[in-house]
Amino acid sequence: MIVILLGPPGSGKGTQAAKLARETGLTAISTGELLRRESESGSELGEKVSSLLHAGLLVDDDLMNEVVAKLLAGEDCQNGCILDGYPRTIEQARFLSRFLEGHGLEEPIVFDFVVSPEVVIERLSQRRQCPVCGHIYSAEFDVYGKDMVCEVDGTPLVRRSDDNPETIRERLRIYQGKTLDLVAFYKTRRYFALDAMQTPDAVGAELISLLDTLRVPLVLRGGN
After folding, report:
1. CATH architecture observed for domain 2-28+82-215
2. Tell me: the pLDDT tens digits for 51-91?
3. Is residue 5 a contact partner of residue 13, using CB atoms and an 8 Å limit?
4. Closest alpha carbon to 114 in 163, 188, 172
5. 3-state secondary structure of 94
């Protein structure tokens, strides 16, 4: 089972990916984490990714698709996975569809996190990050964020330089421009729009309810 989480920065995808992974037993992985893992693997593919990342360049569709194909063929994704940040383009979506069909697998379940620009700006303005491990917290919802230190290593949290209203609006503009065709592509498939302006608990409950509706095998939830 492949679950795709769509949504702009600040929509809560990362938080829900982690919760959903605990509920289902599926591996949750973000695009950034996936690229970092591959670049550190020492593989030929990893060296290509690493050279682009170090040069500050974007990973193109073909290379991104190759990285994801390797992930899906690995042991971590034997039962499936939760993808946060992939696909980002219609070309990537079409590749994933062909890949799954070619391996006799079902189309992905797509959850689209719908949230207003105002809410995104408010959330990202409250976002804090650990400069050591990179873990992100919300000062609004996350109890650890209120303490302003990382729960993993105790490092004081910082505000990212790009989490300001002007930069956030530009990121949202770019996101919307890139994902219109992507959303249209998935709306004809197993696509569900979520009200991501709810609390994290409410969004998480809706996700699980939808998976129950789809009759996701209970074995994926650790036998619970």
Report:
1. 3-Layer(aba) Sandwich (3.40)
2. 988 887 778 999 999 999 999 988 888 888 999 989 999 99
3. yes
4. 172
5. helix
**8 A C-beta contact, residue 82 and residue 20:** yes
Strand partners, 128: 137
Which residue type sits at 32? G
Whole-prediction pTM: 0.82
| Residues 19-57 pLDDT 10s | 999 888 889 998 888 998 899 888 999 999 999 888 877
Q: Where are the alpha helices (DSSP H) in the chain?
A: 13-24, 31-39, 44-54, 61-72, 90-102, 117-125, 143-147, 165-186, 200-213
Active-site residues, by number, are 13, 88, 127, 160, 171
Alpha-carbon Rg for the chain in angstroms: 17
Where exactly are the structural domains of the chain? 2-28+82-215
Residue 138 pairs in a beta bridge with 127
Contact (Cβ atoms closer than 8 angstroms) between residue 171 and residue 156: no
Q: What is the DSSP letter of 149?
A: B
